[in-house]
Amino acid sequence: MAEWFSFVNDPAAWVALATLVVMEIVLGIDNLIFISILSNKLPEEQRQRARRIGISLALVLRLGLLSLVSIIVQLTEPVFSAFGQDFSWRDIILLVGGFFLVWKATKEIHHTVDVEDTKDNMMGRAATTTFASVIVQILLLDLVFSVDSIITAVGMTDDITIMVIAVVSAVTVMLLAADPLSRFIGNNPTIVMLALSFLLMIGMTLIAEGLGFHVPKGYIYAAMAFSGIVEALNMLARRARKRKGGAGAH
């Protein structure tokens, strides 16, 4: 047990822990947006349960992968080559996850903008989506994001205790933020389209990473933050117009 907490007297280990916690939380944002969008398609009484199950599965997967960290490290080793490019199991997982996200986001954008097609529209009736199908989709993306998360952790530290604390901290933040984020997305239709655009961008980033093109995460999150700020300003402007219109009516 003493070996597990041997890092407490090492200032460098605390810096590594703080940095890794922040990185894990940031990486968890992608996962949380996907879980929030999918859970909002379910009937109201099932949404919170779906979010909690999805996030719990993310924690279980991450901790399970940490127990297999020696195998996870080997996922970055090439297993075959094609078109002059080496591909590892990590690349394959990222490609599959990326194409799934692009397909899912494109499908949802189509259903959202096509007013005649409300069968699977997040603005339409949620009862057409089954609880089991949502959990399966969340589990698939949990696996993709978990592999990326653990490989990031392994690249920053070799202390398993620091990795476990960082992962648990990030998933705890996801659990606390899930309900407020889902309500916010559900109450603001324009945010749904913005979130779907984020998923589309994240999917393309995963595909690029899987093909060997490194995309600095800072660029992705800076673009997401900028888009979020612009949308927040638009929301404030719409509310101001409504208040002005209401005052004018009186």
Average predicted local confidence, pLDDT: 77
Largest sheet: 2 strands, antiparallel
Please indicate the percent range of residues in DSSP E strands (runs of 2 or more).
under 5%
Low-confidence segments, ≥5 residues, pLDDT <50? 120-127
Summing up helix and strand content along with how strands pair, one would put the structural category as: mainly alpha
Give the SSE order as H and E letters. Answer: HHHEEHHHHH
Number of domains: 2
Please report the number of helical segments.
8
Rg over alpha carbons: 20 Å
Spatial shape: globular
Q: How many DSSP E strands?
A: 2
Helix share, percent: over 70%
Q: Which strand order does the major sheet show?
A: 1-2
End-to-end Cα distance, whole Å, is 70 Å
Walk me through the topology.
Elements: H1 11-39, H2 44-67, H3 69-74, E1 78-82, E2 85-88, H4 89-113, H5 131-156, H6 160-187, H7 189-210, H8 217-249
Helix pairs in contact: 1-2, 1-5, 1-6, 1-7, 2-5, 2-6, 4-5, 4-7, 6-7, 7-8
Could you explain how this protein is built, in words?
The chain has 250 residues and is mainly alpha-helical. The protein has 2 domains: 2-214; 216-250. Helix content is 77%, strand content 4%. The protein contains 8 helices and 2 strands, in the order αααββααααα. The protein has helices at 11-39, 44-67, 69-74, 89-113, 131-156, 160-187, 189-210, 217-249; strands at residues 78-82, 85-88. Strands 1-2 form a two-stranded antiparallel sheet. Strand 1 and strand 2 (85-88) form a beta hairpin. Helix 1 packs across helix 7 and helix 2 runs parallel beside helix 5 (131-156). 28% of the residues are buried. Mean pLDDT is 77; it is low at 120-127.
